[in-house]
Amino acid sequence: MRRLLPLAVALLLATPAELLAYADKTTHARLTDGSFRLVPTEATEIHAFRCEVAHGSVSEDEEPRYLFHFWNPVTGRGLPRNSYTMAFSAVMGIATTGRPGPGLEPSSSYRTAMDWGWNEMEDDYDWLGAIEAYGDGDLQKAYTGLGHVLHLLQDLGQPDHSDSRPHPGNYVANYIPGITRVGYEGLWGQPNMFWPPGGAIERKPTLQGYFRAMADLARAEEAPVRARWRDEMALGLGTVKHDNVSRAVVALGEAAGFVDNNWKKFELQAAIKPLIPLQQNDRRFQDHLALGHRLLPRIEQFGAGLLLHFHEIVNPPPFIEGVEISQNGERKYLKGWSGGRGSTRSWGGTAELPLERDVPATVTIRVGPRHPMPAYGAPPEQGGSTTCISADPREQVRERLQTITVTIRTASGARTLPVNEGSEPGSPMGGVWTGTFTPTEGATLEIEATDADSHLAQRSPLGDVLDSNPATRARASTRDQFPWDGYEPGPDVNHSFRVAAPAGCDFDAESHRFGTWTGTYRLESASKGFDLQIGGKIWFDVAVSETATVRFRSLLRPAGECHELTRMEFGPGSGSYTRTKLEKVLERRVNIRPGEADRVTTTDTPTETTTNSGGAATANGRIDFEAGTYSAGMSSESSGREHGAGFHDSGRFEGCAIPTLSGGESMESGSPDDEFWSKREWSYTYTYSGPARPEHATLCPVCFEYGGTQMAIQSFVQRANNLLQQASSELYQSMRIEEGTAVANMMAEFDEFWTAYDYELETNVATQCDRASSLWLQEDPEYGTAVQDVEAASRAAEAQARDLATRAMQLTQRAAAALDRSSPRAAAALRTLSQILGTRGWTAFGG
After folding, report:
1. Least trusted range by pLDDT, from 23-27, 51-55, 479-483
2. Taking Cα atoms as reference points, which of 774, 776, 720 lies closest to residue 748?
3. What is the DSSP-derived secondary structure letter of residue 507?
4. CA proximity to 653, closest of 507, 439, 515
5. Which end of the chain has the smaller Cβ count within 10 Å, N or C?
6. How far are the Cα atoms of 359, 501, 715, 740, 743 from residue 819, in angstroms, in the given order?
7. In the β-sheet with 492-497, what is the strand arrangement from edge to edge?
8. Which residue has the higher pLDDT, 447 or 582?
9. How far apart are CA 372 and CA 258, in angstroms?
10. Residue 660: which of 693, 691, 623 has the closest Cα?
């Protein structure tokens, strides 16, 4: 063996990849497969990203990452930095020295697997990086990072790694002919070596808990083997000593200041000599085989626990992705949230029509976030390698809820909707929730739900309760205990519907959108009696007449988001007010004379007063054509000291004609012949006097569809991606992998395109239109400026829509050209889609 030393030294300098643990493409792949076999099938998301986890598990052994796969839980140290690891780093130009020591001298060991796996990977494939990637919506990177961390856990199940022992001799046979023995890792890299499958999943509350438990287990299980085979420097590996080399090595290490972490031990006794014969009746072979049979199944069990633990951290709370209501097969309502990445989601819909009264309706509730479909192909059998053709580009609706309750809340009360689980078309493994009810009046859906998927137990709130505000995407932060950001647990009350007026209603909302009301209010009152005064009585006889003539504007508005107009608002009015007062006063004074007390002298003095004054009126009310009810009121105030007039009226009406507001009342106390008497009569009449047409009416639609263009763009992209998805699936099934991948990349381009839409430009038009209407209603002097603001906002939104249409047609034509040879039918359909957009614009897609 003496002649082996120079070859071994050369091997150590040239191939420190022998510091790897289990063989990456065989043992690591099989361990990953074993963990996945233990993960329950209902954990569909974890299985869907099996390819990414497997890829991360294998690629973690790329250089120089393997230098950081060691951690001794007793000393807290990683791989010792010795002559051959330093030489390799210098030759490869790898700046991977360990952390500085206490005196800022270079550390005698590389960073540990614990630190590396937690948050020290420069490419963010570590634990915290994977959690952040998931929160950003990049699930592929998140699960790839999980695979990298899983590799570290698997390595710590190899005792050399959990004791920070270099073990480069496992693969000497690959470089030196004639070597017929192997080390412990080399033993499990043999093609026909198997271990028992893992059993019950082992769970720990933290990543550190998994790493420590795995390392402690490996150290404990190897203890009897190391005690029996004392000639092993590392598992299954002996040493080769050479005194002439030792002195130089010692000097080199001492000069570098490496005087701890067993560096000298591993320098002088490099574990490069394989000792395990490949003979089943050999005692050493049997001991190491038994060690693997104890450890490898446990690695699978801990690995499965780690996969579930990661998903419990990042698994976002459920939210109501969308609600659809239909009657007689016709979709009446469809609104929801969209946007897979970023911190916010967009709200919009493609349908919001009134429901028919007393007609059965079906409500369909889709719960997000959607889970990806599992990858194509069945998992490989034990002993095979992980083979991933492609992840299925489709997504399925979240299918696992613990509870879901839907309450329909109306003005007259609330009732619970029976909810059943149904199947989602195009997603055979997906689920939706449906219920039926018969609407009689408008209502709000109050949806409550809890998740069946597990969430991190030590976090509060857990994340199992429905997110009441899907506008902000809930994501696990990387702070202590991974608390939620953007999560508001509670019922979802974002969806409301209205019920249409009875059949036969032909009310033209557009022609009555802006209108004017005129009318009068009249009060007649009379009274007689007396007031007591000092020295006598003052008798009076008063008649008062009050008349208010008022004009005010009205505006029809939607009762909800955007549907037929049902509510009329009254603005402040103006007009004239007249009060006429006729008063006759009789002064009767009593003169008392001695002896003549019964003699009375009376003097009568009549007085007449008339007051005419201007005034103003305010009015407000609601005329609901959906319910056939109205409620309106008005009060007028004179410019003088006199009291104002007013009215309030409410009732029902049939059909859709705007009702005339009229009414009154009469009250009398006593009789005109009595000494004391009063009478009060008042009446009012207000009529709608025809439509008005303010300046901004031509710029603003009857009802502005918030997000209409955005939803049209999304609809266009969805139709294009459906064509691309079908073409991609056909290419994958025919094993034309590269062409299928190219088509999948095109789908990503379309997804990225529709996010370029600036929602604020469109909503600004709606905001300015609403402001202009309110100012017109109030007869505000700022109305002229508001019209200019509407014009500017409209021009900006129209320019954006035209620009996006041009870009969409260019992208579609390019995709069609790329599919001409591989899928001509899809190419033709894409060109037709582009032509429709070019001729009819976004309105062809609902915008």
Report:
1. 23-27
2. 720
3. -
4. 507
5. N
6. 47, 50, 21, 10, 8
7. 413-417, 401-410, 443-451, 492-497
8. 447
9. 50
10. 623
